[in-house]
Amino acid sequence: MRSLFFSFIHSFRHRGVQVVSSIILYLLLSEHLPIYAHRGFYTISLCIKDLLIWMLPFTVGFFIADTMCTFERKAPLFIGSLLLFEALSNCSSVWYAFATAHLAAHSLPSLELPSFHDSFSPLWRLELNKPGWWSADKGTIAGIVIGFFGAMFPKSPLRHLIRMGRESAQWILTHLFAGLIPIFVLGFVARMVQSGFFYQILLHYGELLIWLVFFLAFYLLLLFFIGSSFSFFNVLRSIKNLLPAGSFSFCSGCSLSTMPLTIEGTAKNLQHPSLAKAIIPATTNIQQVGDCITNAFLCFLLYQHFFGHSPDVFTWLQFSLVFVLARFTTAAVLGGAIFIMLPIYETYLSFNAEMIAIVLAFNVILDSLVTSTNVLGNGALCAIFEKVWLWVLQKLEMHTQGKELKSK
Question: Residues 296, 91: contact at Cβ < 8 Å?
Answer without folding.
Answer: no
